[in-house]
Structures
1.
Amino acid sequence: MERIYISVILPLRIEWVPCYYLESSGNEESEDGHIVRGSLESRALDSGKESSGYRPIVRGSRVKVRFAGRTYIGVVDEVGITPEVEINKIQPVISIEERLETISEQELDLWKFVADYYLCSIGEVYKAAYPPSKTNGEVSKVLSEERAEERHAKNIDRKIAVLTARREGVLARIGRKSLQAEKARTEATRAKYLSEKEALEQTAAELGKQIADAESEKNAPEESSSCSKPEIQLDFSLSAAQTTAYEEIHKAFENHNPVLLQGVTGSGKTELHIALAKEALTRGRNVLYLIPEIAVSRQMEERLGRIFGNLLLIFHSKETPARR
């Protein structure tokens, strides 16, 4: 068994990045130098299921590890490192969370920039960006999707079993009609049996088609009921420069890249924020809009309230318990 050593960022206030190892047999390197999992001794989300495909273990991959007696979801910082501590003190990775989203290189670089700027650990930045409630929500969502897929597959299996039993019964009746037609003493009786046989053959063909459709549906993901999209009307139009910035930001978001929008006061950054928030909400997502001061939030609350209405929720330390 070959050991691969990796450094893992944990959502903790520690000044170093802990080292862990993965045990594998037959890992290979991809063309870009990433280590591809061959048969790592790990499980995805402790579900007991191996991933159907192998994904490279890269910087930003999510892993489950143990630290100081507790279990955490960490982010891989470096792969294939040389340990700086005693080998026998390095713990193994519990599992590779392949179903959780990989953190992009750009976001990790942003974490390090924030940690350096605010003189804190990168683990604290990770915890702020991915609080336990968010990480647990990701895991719960994945497990819920897996259970939904299992229920969907079981329902399809039952449907196929019922259709197959019905088709077998129809085929048996077709056989009996054939024998009756052969033994018929008159042409009228024989024609009657053949007509009934033809109708049964059409029924059998239709049942066969339904079985084939069910087999295809079994491998298709279960569609969730679509939620009604909120109707949001903007009270402004983007300028040419704002439209260009909007398109560039939208393109970066599609590639899961973080964006820093920089502009002087009055250049129209807020309008861009609102336009992007509208798009996210209409796609069924959530938006967290942070304001540096409570005094400024009062003004923004009025402006955002005119556009987003009841979709807007305000939270800060000056809010009364009743309003919270």
2.
Amino acid sequence: MHRCDTSTAVAVMPDPEPAGDPGYFTKGDPVAGQGATVPGQDMWNAVVEELCNILDAFGEAPDQTKQDYGQIATVLLANLANIAGNASQVFRAAPGVADNEVVVRGQVATTTEKGIVELATNPEALDGLDAERAVTPANLGATMYGFGQSVQDVLASRAGEVTYTNSTGRPIFVSVIIASDQTTGTVAVGDMFVDDVRIVRGRLITPVNNSVQLNLQAMVPHGSTYAVKGVTAGTMTIWTEIR
């Protein structure tokens, strides 16, 4: 980009002529007696100054060597990339934005304004504390209870009085059944703890020749511990987890 530097250029921009009616260029029509449009000094000065002001706004001077034909594009991309984070994305239309709507590049999205928003990581989505990042369906699928989980029989790898930690990245559901002894009429006893807090306390007395099943259940958040304790009577026959 450069300013006019021919031998007929003047050092000070002339005052604009009185405003006329806005219109469009034409090549003219000799048959109809319509002459071709003469741009005039005001139009060319306005175009050049508008472009030079873009460079000036970013602290750049016009390239009077006349060798750089991409100066404005380079300056815009370099500076807008600092805002958008990726120069290749600066001029892409935002999905879902109507043709007559404008999203200012660099404008941070809010609950009332469209704009740029950073996508949340799975840990950020799981924490549930960030009010600036956006949660995607992939985040939900990786962190919410019930997505991509299944009912699993984990009895063989579980025992009473042992504390386990949910490190799956999402909540899990734990269900433990303690069965009484049908022949002796014992008591089914057991407590379910989450983060060392008793969630369920179970006590069932069984008459002889009758059997009862004590069911202990709890939802365990990601990162929390859980345990079944106090099984002094009865036998754990089922331990399933939705995980």
